[in-house]
Amino acid sequence: MKKVNAINNIALHYARLPQYPYGTSGKPYDFYIEDSFLKLLETAFKDVFMHCPLGKPDIITSAGTLVGKAGEHGYGKAFDLDAIFWKDHQLITNNYIHQKELYLGIESFLRKHFGLVLNYHYPNHTDHWHVDSSVSVDYNESSKSETFYLQMVLKDIYQKPVVIDGISGPQTRRFTKEVFGRLKIDTPITTKKNYLKFLDITGKIAFKLSEEQQNPLQLLENLEVVINRLPVNDKHQVNEALNAFLVHHTTSTWINSIQPHQDIENIIDTVIT
Ligand SMILES: [Zn+2]
Fold first, then answer.
1. Tens digit of pLDDT for each residue in 168-227?
2. What is the DSSP secondary structure assignment for residue 189, as one 8-state letter?
3. Signed CA dihedral, 209, 213, 216, 219: sign only
4. How close is the Cα of 132 to the center of ligand 1, in Å?
5. Residue 78 carries which DSSP code?
6. Interatomic CA distance for residues 48 and 39, integer angstroms
7. From the CA of 103, how far away is ligand 1's center (Å)?
8. Distance 11 CA to ligand 1 centre (A)
């Protein structure tokens, strides 16, 4: 077990109440991490930030490593990642809706190293990624957390209209097959070699997308997602106001003039050739 306050010279901070609110860069903190798991974190962070267009960050906030509870945290063999801070940018994990491409780029590379990654859609994990190595790096259709990730990238990176429910069914399998064909990766996804290639290519594509300017139509879609999460009464009122805005002649003329999507096809071609 080692006591560390940085990994690869990235400072580790703690930002949870009462003193340091979630989403801030918090305060420097010592974390206890089991030796071999620390090595894995070093390798994984190196890979993530070597590919990330924002480069190496200054600070990572963590809600904990060694925690007195069941599972890998009990041995200092798990890491809860709350947020990442670069000089002029930040990724707060519970801001997923607004930073999908960057979030999924980072997660794709994390998944190459950690068999278990619990993300935004997994119950109780909207505000952090949990990573550990209690299971091997591969894709199992029966894994809810792995299927959440797969469906998130199918929808938010590859623009397939898949339902994100963590359950692999005929629709998820069909879109997966389509995307694998487009990326020229052998199927099935359940073969480790194919899955690793998918993670690598998807990470690179997501990072490239994260560099593009966000399209107003995407921002509108994000707004709709946020509205749908409101309590019923508020949802109704906000929806009415938004619809009145959208059907206004001037607004609708403007919206119809916006090109629908970023050029995902070009980006795929650049990454796979
Ligand atoms: Zn955890």
1. 999 999 999 999 999 999 999 999 999 999 999 999 999 999 998 778 888 888 898 889
2. T
3. positive
4. 8
5. E
6. 14
7. 17
8. 19
